[in-house]
Amino acid sequence: MADSIRVSNTSRVLPVPTSDDEHPTTLLSLSFLDTFWVCIGPVQRLLFYRSEAPLASVVQSLKSSLSVTLGTFYPLSGKLALSADSGELFIDCGAGGEDDGVEFTEAETDEEDLERLVTDHVHHWETYKRLVPDMRIDCLPAPLMAVKVTGFRGGFTVGVSVHHVAGDGNSFSRFVKAWAETCMSGGDAVVMREAVTFDRAVVWHPRNSDICRSYLDVWAPSRPTMTFHTFVKPTSEIARRTFIITAKMIQSLKRIATETSRNGDSTQTKKKPPSTFVAVAAHAWTCITRARATEDGVSTMFFMADCRSRVDPPIPQGFFGNCVKVCNTKSNVADLSVGEGHGFRFACDAIERTIKEETSEPFRGCEEWVQRLLAGLPDHGRIVNFAGSHRFGFYKADFGWGRPSRVEFVSMPNEGAVVMNDARDDEGGVQLSLALPPHHMEVFATVFLDGMDGLGSDGFKL
User: Where is the composition biased (Polar residues) (predicted)?
Assistant: First the structure.
């Protein structure tokens, strides 16, 4: 079916300047938080929309509003480049070349069933990959963003690929929502709630240049050729599936996390409930561990911590760039596998303890982050890797044809990948997508949904 998707046009979208002056900064240096991500492949998101609007008018509106939005978020139309003098990387926002701007691909299909792709809890991943733009970033200079819009009977998809060096999920979600608001308004530039800044100096470190160079020496020793790392050995067959965790279900998880013991019908509680992220991540981590049916050893969970509000002085909320650090917590499989909620509570405590340790001084030891990451990778497959956030709000991206019917993270090729989104129709709920071998996925679905009310037989509602 994926072969039925045909490209009809490819063009480039240039930013419309927000004033009579040229962009205030044409060259952006990278912070060590940006450089950390140079070896990661494109981050790819896919938004599905039900609509009867003609594709030509959809494309015209999306392209014109993208041009206006890039006037504010202008670095996204630039390139990641290499300085011939210093050997350092930077973002070139105005190279003046014929391949400037964001590549915008238009495609169509008469055979693919949009409704099937929207409603099926099982991912049609081969089709998903054809619906996001292929962005080559393995040699510098490299683009930072590309867009692909595909028309279906009854709707369309917007696929976006972005280089992680350009910004983290928090930054990119603000761009997508600004683009949607601009499109809905008919092309008028939106007034951002927080002024957008790209100044990497707000992520201050006295040895920033040295740290960036040391990261590059590990990640990209052959630059301008870039070698990308998967960190997890790919397995031969992966199943990908999406689950919806309702707000009611999350409140139940938080309540269970505070329980210490049961005496008859009474329950004793302790401490304050965990955050939504901690509760959902702990539940998923323990269920994946049980699904893998490993009797001993250690399971490692990786996740991101946003540092914006955790440094002194705090980084402006309007900062567009990378401001996350990789955290990992390890636990014995036996501790995570204990029933009656004990394994879940153990996981909550482990995640909360790691967050506290890693964010008390967010940039402490950053000189060794790459070495720590590589040293912390186990030589087995017991890894759970969390990405995304329910706070990003991609389901709010209404371009004028209604909110997305579905949002998915396509760049999750490896076993153990878990991605969080907000839930479309449940305020406070979470959408969770993950990748596991098929036999593990079957067990996970049963364990994950066991005893949870209101989800239906397959745990998926859109």
Answer: 1-12
Q: CATH: 3.30.559.10, 3.90.76.10, 3.90.190.20, 3.30.70.100. Which one for 239-449?
A: 3.30.559.10
What is the rounded average pLDDT for all residues in the chain? 89
Q: Which CATH superfamily is domain 2-219 in?
A: Chloramphenicol acetyltransferase-like domain (3.30.559.10)
List the structure tokens of 375: 């040293």
Whether pLDDT at 21 is above 60:
no
Same fold, 2-219 and 239-449: yes
pLDDT (0 to 100) of residue 263: 43
Task: Say which range, 113-117, 294-298, 326-330, 422-426, has the weakest mean pLDDT.
Answer: 294-298
Q: What is the mean pLDDT of residues 83-95?
A: 86
- The model's pLDDT over 269-326, given as tens digits with 9 standing for 90+, comes to 567 899 999 999 999 999 999 999 876 788 999 999 999 999 988 999 899 999 999 9
